[in-house]
Amino acid sequence: MISLIQTLILGVLVGAVYALLASGLTLIFGVMRVINLAHGAFAILAAFLTYTLWSWLGLDPLLSIPIVTVAMFAVGWVVYQLAIRHVRGRHVSMTVLLTFGISLVLEGVMGFVWGNTSHSVRTDYTDASVQLGPFFLPEAQLIVAIVAVVVIGLLYLVLQRTWAGRAIRAASSNESGALLVGVSVSSVAALTFAIGTATLGAGGAMISVIYPFLPGSHDQWIARLLAIVVLGGLGSLPGAIVGALVIGVGEMLATSYIGASWPVAVPFLVIFVVLVLRPQGLMGTRLREDAVA
Amino acid sequence: MRFTSALRGVATVAALATVGLGLAACTPDAPSGDGDGPIVIGTSLPLTGDFSEGGTNTQQGYEVWKAITNENGGLLGRQVDFKVYDDASDQNTVVSDYTQLIGQDGVDLVLGSQSSLLNIPASAIAEREGYLFICPSCGSGDMYNRGFTKIFFSQQSVAANQAKLFAEWIAALPEDERPATAAYPSLDDPFAGPVVDGAEAILSAAGVETVYKDVYPADTKNFDSIVAAVRDSGAEMVVQGAQFEDGVNFLRSMNRAGYQPDILFQSSSPTYGDQYLDGVGQENTEGVFFAASYTTQAATPGNEEFIAKYKELYDGAEPPEDAADGYAAAQVLQAAVEAVGSIDDQDALADWLHANSVDTILGTLSWNEDGSPKGDFLIGQWQGGVAQIVLPADVATSDEILRWRGGAL
C-alpha cells in the first residue's frame, strides 16, 4: 500500500509538469486549430534562457520565470507574424509541416548558440525532497505543481475575466461570429499563440531544474504533450490538466507494476482505449464539421 | 497538330537531357586513390539528437587528429580532410549517409559513427562496399556476430567485458565486505545492456543476489518510480547501464528518494567530465565507479600531444573520453595506411590490422578475427572532483577506492 501511494504521489507530481507544458499547446489548438509541433522546442528554448540567466547572473529559475515568460511571449508573437499566420486556416498538414520545420530551425539555432551538449540548472531544491512519513515528495516537482496551479489559474482568469480572454473564447467557438461582432480574429490568433508560448516560460524554467536538456531534447517532449492534449480533448484546458495527470500517474504505475520498459506504451494504450470510446477526448466537445466556420 | 507534336518532341528531348545530366551528376566522383589531392575520410556522426553529446566529442577527436597529422606532413605525404554528415542520431540517416559517402562522394576512407546503435547499420554499408570500418564506439556484441571481416573497434574491450575488472574486484572482496544484493537498471541500448549483463554474470557467480533488474526506454525522463523500486528491493549495490542523461537523472532521483547504496557503477555517464559534474553536482560524483577507455593521465604514446592540441583547438578544455576514442580510431586507421603504404586496397588494410597491434593514446590495441578488441577496460572512480583510474592496479592513478558519497570502501 505504501508503494502504491508513493507511486500515485510521484505520478501526480509528474502530471503537474506535463500539465504546465501542455496548457499552452491545447490553448493554441483550441483557438487556432494549429497543431504546434514546435511547442517542445519552445519549451527547451525557455529552459536555455533560464539556464543563461542562472549561469550569468546566478538568478534562481523561479525568479527568472517572469523574465523568460515575457521573452517567450515575444518569441511566440514574432514566430506567429513571420510564419504561422500564413498557414492558419489552411489544411492541417501545412501547419504540421511548418511547425515541424520551426522546431528543427529552433533546434539548430539552440545548438549554434549553446552547443549540442547537455545543460543543467542545479539549485538547492534540484535533488531535495520533502519527507512525509514513509513518502518522499521531490521538492522541485512540488514547486512545479504549485507553479502549474498558479500559471493555469492565471490563464483561466485571463480567459474568463478579461476582454482579451472573451475574444479568444469567441474566436475559438465561432470565428465567423466573432468577426461579425467586431473581434479582430487575426490579432486574437497572434495573442493566443504568444500566450500559449509564454506559458512555457514557467514550464521551461522548471524543466531546466528537473531534467538535463540539450537542443535535441524537444522531440522527447512533443510526442508526450500531443498525446496529453489529444487524451484530454483538443482545445480543452481542463482536459489537458486531467490528461496530464492520467498520463503521469499511468507512467508511474506502469513502471512500478509492469516494468520500466512500459511507461511509454501504457499511456498510449490508455489514449487508444479512451479515443475509441470517446473520440473527442476526456473533456473535449464533439462538433459538427459544418458548424465550425 | 504539327506544332503540338513538335512541342512534345522538344519536351521529350529536354526531359531525356535532364535525366542524363542528373545521372551524370550522380556518378560517384572518382576516388583520389594515390593521387596528389587530399585524402578524404568520410564519416557520419550524431551532431544533433539524443547522441549529440558523444557525436560532437568524437568529431573533436577526429579534428585533433587531422590537425596533428597535417602538421606532420599528412598521410602518405598527402593532407587529410574529413567529409562529415550529421545523422541526427538516427539509424536510417546514418545508413543513407554512409551510402552517400561511399557511393556518391567517393571518399577514400571512412571512420565510424558514435554509438553501437548507429555503427551497427553503418558498418553493414561499409562491409557491403568493401570499405575498412574502424569505429570509436561500438562495444555491442551485435557488431561482431555477422561474419564481417573489415570492422574494428578501436577501444580495449567490447561492452560485455567493460565492467569486468570492476565486477571481479567486487567478487574478490571478503564475504563480510562484499555487497549481498545488487540492482541492475539499464537503458535499452545495445551497448549499455551488455555492460550490465557482463557484470551481473560475474557478480552472480560470486553469490551477489540480483534483487532488481529492468530495462527502460531511451526517452525515459523521470526515474523516481524506478529508483523507488530499486530502493525498496534493498539492493546494496547498483550497476546501471547508462548513456548520459539517464545516468544523471537516475542519480538525481536516488538523492530525492534518500537512497544511498555503498556502491554505484554507471557505464558511460561519469565519463562526460565537467558535464557530468555539472549535472549531478560534485558531491554526488564522489565514489561513482565507471568503465573508462581513456584517462588524461595515461602515459601512452601521443597522449600529451593529443591533450595539448585539444586544448589549443577547444578553449583549454580537457578532452572528454569520446574525443580520445575518436582520436584513437583515426590513429588505428593511420597505422594501417602507413604500414600498407596505400589507401586503395581496403582488404590489405584490414589484413594488416588483423595481424598487428597498434599503439594509441588508449594503449596498445589488437583484435580478434571478428574485429572485437582483445584487452580490458580501465575502471575509474570520481574522487574529489577528479576522475581517477582505480583498476587495474598497475595503471591506477589513485590508491583509494571509495564508497559512493565518500568514505573508504
What this model shows, in words?
The complex is a heterodimer of chains A (293) and B (409). Chain A is mostly helical and 293 residues long. Chain A has a domain at 15-216. Chain A has twelve helices and two strands, in the order H-H-H-H-E-E-H-H-H-H-H-H-H-H. Chain A has helices at 2-32, 39-57, 61-87, 92-114, 139-161, 163-173, 175-180, 185-198, 200-210, 218-232, 237-257, 265-277, and strands at 129-132, 135-138. Chain A has a two-stranded antiparallel ribbon with strand order 1-2. The termini of chain A are far apart. The relative contact order of chain A is 0.20. Chain B is of the alpha/beta class and 409 residues long. Chain B is built from 13 helices and 15 strands. Chain B has helices at residues 2-26, 52-71, 91-104, 116-128, 164-171, 192-205, 224-233, 245-256, 274-280, 282-285, 303-313, 321-340, 346-355; strands spanning 39-45, 80-86, 109-110, 133-135, 151-153, 181-187, 209-216, 237-240, 263-266, 289-292, 358-360, 363-367, 373-374, 378-383, 386-391. A four-stranded parallel β-sheet of chain B has the order 7-6-8-9, with helices on both faces. In chain B, strands 2-1-3 form a three-stranded parallel β-sheet, with helices on both faces. Chain B has a three-stranded antiparallel β-sheet with strand order 10-14-15, with no helix packed on it. Residues 17-32 of chain B have low confidence and may be disordered. At the A-B interface, helix 1, helix 4, helix 10 and helix 11 of A face helix 2, strand 7, helix 7, helix 8 and helix 9 of B.
